[in-house]
């Protein structure tokens, strides 16, 4: 376990850092540019460490190895390293005013530290009647990956989203990852930031505004990723991409799909979801996690509470099969939702099959 | 109903007696001075040279030497084949190879354990499984994700289980397997001390790495094993690197030492801590024989620190950029296989022809297991929903009143199960 922290004499490096970050981002002089999710995260960490010397990174292999998925590339060389013991220490330091960013190599490993996340980080502000705050970010890849089987392939979004005191973010593209990670680091409360390793290498177009050092996105606000009139698909993270692909496919059937990118799982943007369903009158939720007590269950509950009379069809869920993830490819394939599943269920909602 | 220890402490009576079977011995039954001694052996100089040059004669029979040699070569060749197959896309996800560490698996499992003993392993588990006697065919098939694998293709490289051979599991999480192994040792002791089964002398060996020794489960398990004198052996395969984190950068030194010795943590918990050259299969065997015998006699656990080295990166996805060339060369020169080979030839335990035959038979076995795995069928879709619960009623009741597992689509993997 290691942590990276800023030393003194930062002003010189601050200007260097800004230059380097922009060179790396290739932002100079272009209205839009391509940015990978990995660089979005790396630049957000870099800039927030520059901005606030209370921000530090702690985790496994975040130093010399530069992160198991290279999200912390270059940060050790720039900020230097100190070593320490891990989630509990990070939470304890947050209670005393530091701002740790805890990297879990994958969120599967956060199970080893869930007591510190749920019982310590999430509850101390309340238990101490506001005397203790916990400005901490827990981040790392979450959700099913490829070929790594039951213990390494699962979605923890509903787990953490059920805990009072935590904020939970599931970013989709480079803009989301950059703007929301910066917001998470600046947030005064514990934030669980669930990335997806399959998305790290994906490149997205971003505007110059996104590359601004003070670009932050609001936590708790969903984004209409695609406008439509006939069906609302609510998704988060990688599955926003699936929903967009399904929407393009459904266009051919004359079904106009609106895609709601949740961005925040908790707090949940009930208004945006309800407003969309009031417009389209149909709801389909998409997630990789298990169906029971999942994200879809919660979103459907929201719609039943807020827009029941506007529904023209029963809401539908597309999710992972409720089993531990099998290793063998054909079984793994059958256990996870695909674009074709979204299209099939959506068609069923319109009696197109 | 099986009596449980947790209830015993509250209920008293017969329960209290059961607990007494696990109560640590005090006073006159304190461990002897010798039992508490730290058996440290210098590692800078291979211990085998020292021990064998003194006696001038071989410490093992020709038959045993050949068995150990073949097991190490099988481990090496199997893993090298795995690398080829991974790069050809026959296996997927993360694959962690054991090459370089064979002396530990062979010296402990092959040399000392019975089929009914238990081992718990890590994500680097293929060779432990081979040494335990599980067929190369079953292991390779699991890695290929085939129906004929140890877990019908559901577990894969990091999660290998075989109840018949006492393989408690490859555990993908650091430290996760240690309490599981401890539980197996507890079961063995429980059968013997509480249920009166005198034949229950199975031991459990937990394998894990240097990085794991900074995880809480390790210390909690050391304490419980010592407290209840469980037939448990903790084998730290100290290969000096936890992915890219060097042991010396991750662990504080023991008092008065420059090195962070892991074996010295054994005596702190009341068990012997043994330091052994993990590149020397005979040295490992010697330490393990003693530890296993102690455990079988009911004298409690042992912590063995075997200093070893992996010849490849952490996994096949690891670029392995942080370990120096000098360090790799240093350990490559101490490759356990040529070391045993030289020993066998020197002491007339095998001829060049014998060894060539062993290599040929291993090559044939490895080729065979690949052919077998490749030709094996993929898992049936029926496996998708099977074994989530031991009792499939766990899936609940369908809208039509039947249990969900009775729905026509269940065996085809298409039934709605929630």
Automatic annotation (TrEMBL), chain A:
Pfam short name (any one): Transket_pyr
EC numbers, comma separated: 1.2.4.1
GO biological process, one term: pyruvate decarboxylation to acetyl-CoA
Catalyzed chemical reaction(s): N(6)-[(R)-lipoyl]-L-lysyl-[protein] + pyruvate + H(+) = N(6)-[(R)-S(8)-acetyldihydrolipoyl]-L-lysyl-[protein] + CO2
Keywords tagged on the record: Oxidoreductase, Pyruvate, Thiamine pyrophosphate
Domain Transketolase-like pyrimidine-binding intervals: 35-202
Highest rank taxon of the organism: Eukaryota
InterPro entries noted in UniProt: PDHB_mito-type, THDP-binding, Transketo_C/PFOR_II, Transketolase-like_Pyr-bd, Transketolase_C
Cofactor(s) annotated in UniProt: thiamine diphosphate
Enzyme kind, highest EC tier: oxidoreductase
Keyword Oxidoreductase: yes
CDD domains documented for this protein: TPP_PYR_E1-PDHc-beta_like
Alphabetized GO MF terms: pyruvate dehydrogenase (acetyl-transferring) activity
Function: The pyruvate dehydrogenase complex catalyzes the overall conversion of pyruvate to acetyl-CoA and CO2.
PANTHER family with a match to the protein in the record: DEHYDROGENASE RELATED (PTHR11624), PYRUVATE DEHYDROGENASE E1 COMPONENT SUBUNIT BETA, MITOCHONDRIAL (PTHR11624:SF96)
Record's protein name: Pyruvate dehydrogenase E1 component subunit beta
TrEMBL record, chain B:
Cofactor: thiamine diphosphate
Stated name of the protein: Pyruvate dehydrogenase E1 component subunit alpha
Source organism, top-level taxon: Eukaryota
Signal peptide per UniProt: none
Region named Disordered: 1-33
Matching Pfam families: E1_dh (PF00676)
Gene3D superfamilies: 3.40.50.970
Molecular-function GO terms, alphabetical: pyruvate dehydrogenase (acetyl-transferring) activity
Enzyme class name: oxidoreductase
CDD domains in alphabetical order: TPP_E1_PDC_ADC_BCADC
Summary of subunit composition and partner proteins: Tetramer of 2 alpha and 2 beta subunits.
Keywords: Oxidoreductase, Pyruvate, Thiamine pyrophosphate
InterPro entries documented for this protein: DH_E1, PDH_E1_Alpha_Subunit, Pyrv_DH_E1_asu_subgrp-y, THDP-binding
SUPFAM superfamilies documented for this protein: Thiamin diphosphate-binding fold (THDP-binding)
Bias (Polar residues): 1-10
E.C. number(s) listed in UniProt: 1.2.4.1
Function: The pyruvate dehydrogenase complex catalyzes the overall conversion of pyruvate to acetyl-CoA and CO(2). It contains multiple copies of three enzymatic components: pyruvate dehydrogenase (E1), dihydrolipoamide acetyltransferase (E2) and lipoamide dehydrogenase (E3).
Source organism per UniProt: Auxenochlorella protothecoides
Catalytic activity: N(6)-[(R)-lipoyl]-L-lysyl-[protein] + pyruvate + H(+) = N(6)-[(R)-S(8)-acetyldihydrolipoyl]-L-lysyl-[protein] + CO2
